[in-house]
């Protein structure tokens, strides 16, 4: 999956490089605020995807003594940086261009150039969006989820960033084209300012959503509730487990999950039985999902189980 995410990011990166220069040049020549906003949008996308390409590579480094669980969480950090970049470089510059457009109605006249650049950009952005959509649909089908639901619950920041950026890019091109067209028809540059403001609003909304997801993953987000339920049922169903006291999950990386379970065992088990039980639970949980890479099983007493159950009851409203 990491290889496919890398391909998706590289395709998006190449598409953005292909259109960034043309948007900026067209915006400068034509004095179009909407085109300059789209240029800033593409610049921020390009920088963000460079971050993501580097993060995918760095996250695949093997575990070492200082980082015994590996470097998978680096993807979450760099996606947070990408969200800041979208917010500042993309959204901020778009609102700045909107402000300039409302202050001055100058610009315009190079209509054909603007439309040609927007059409070229639409082709490249559509290719990138198609690639991201293909990965989303394939992964969603494997997880037996809908594409939209998969994007929401996925812990792969590269997939989320590219999918959101490409979707906003296509919408932004539509806004920019509408702003340029109304400017041409009315002679009022304020309409390009409206388009720039709409593009900025989309970028800021996407940045806030990506930042919130990245923060949750960095803090330590649990896996999908369906997988948690499957983990609980698997552990509870083992013949040597009397009670499942507690189960904890956490994403260590985009496709790396740690599972820790605390169980109360049935009476009369030997040390060999407990060792076999731990090994079997480990095997069964890894079979549930290829993303489960770390499993810890802790045997506890009935007294500890009652203490934990009481503590949970106090926390619940």
CATH architecture of the largest domain: Up-down Bundle
Number of helix segments?
Answer: 10
Principal-axes geometry comes out as elongated
Rg (CA only): 25 Å
H and E string: HHHHHHHHEEHEH
- Write the CATH homologous superfamily of the largest domain: Cation efflux protein transmembrane domain
- Termini Cα gap: 40 Å
Task: For the largest sheet, list the strands in their spatial order.
Answer: 1-2-3
Question: Could you walk me through the main structural features you see in this protein, from its secondary elements to its overall organization?
Answer:
The chain is built from ten helices and three strands; from the N terminus they run ααααααααββαβα. With 317 residues, the chain is mainly alpha-helical. It folds into two domains: 2-219, Alpha-lytic protease prodomain-like, CATH 1.20.1510.10; 225-315, 2-Layer Sandwich (Alpha-Beta Plaits). It is elongated, with a radius of gyration of 25 Å. The two termini are 40 Å apart.
């Amino acid at each position: 999956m990491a290889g496919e995410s890398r391909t998706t990011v590289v395709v998006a990166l190449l598409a953005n490089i292909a259109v960034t220069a043309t948007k900026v040049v067209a915006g400068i020549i034509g004095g179009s605020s909407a085109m300059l906003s789209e240029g800033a949008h593409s610049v921020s996308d390009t920088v963000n995807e460079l971050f993501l390409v580097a993060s995918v590579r760095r996250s695949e480094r093997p575990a070492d003594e200082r980082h015994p669980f590996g470097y998978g969480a680096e993807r979450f950090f760099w996606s947070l940086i990408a969200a800041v970049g979208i917010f500042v470089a993309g959204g901020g510059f778009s609102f700045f261009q909107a402000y300039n457009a409302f202050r001055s109605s100058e610009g315009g006249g190079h209509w054909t150039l603007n439309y040609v650049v927007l059409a070229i950009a639409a082709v490249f952005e559509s290719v990138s969006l198609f690639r991201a959509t293909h990965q989303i649909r394939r992964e969603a089908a494997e997880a037996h989820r809908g594409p939209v639901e998969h994007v929401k619950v996925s812990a792969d920041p590269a997939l989320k960033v590219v999918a959101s950026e490409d979707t906003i890019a296509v919408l932004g091109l539509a806004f920019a084209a509408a702003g340029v067209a109304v400017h041409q028809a009315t002679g009022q540059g304020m309409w390009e300012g409206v388009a720039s403001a709409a593009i900025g609003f989309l970028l800021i909304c996407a940045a806030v959503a990506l930042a919130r997801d990245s923060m949750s993953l960095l803090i330590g987000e649990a896996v999908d509730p369906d997988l948690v339920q499957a983990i609980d049922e698997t552990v509870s169903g083992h013949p040597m487990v009397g009670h499942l006291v507690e189960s904890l999950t956490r994403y260590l990386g985009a496709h790396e999950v740690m599972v820790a379970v605390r169980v109360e065992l049935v009476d009369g088990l030997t040390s060999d039985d407990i060792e076999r039980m731990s090994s079997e639970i480990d095997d069964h949980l890894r079979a549930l999902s290829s993303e489960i890479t770390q499993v810890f099983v802790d045997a506890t007493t009935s007294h500890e189980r009652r203490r934990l159950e009481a503590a949970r009851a106090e926390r619940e409203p």
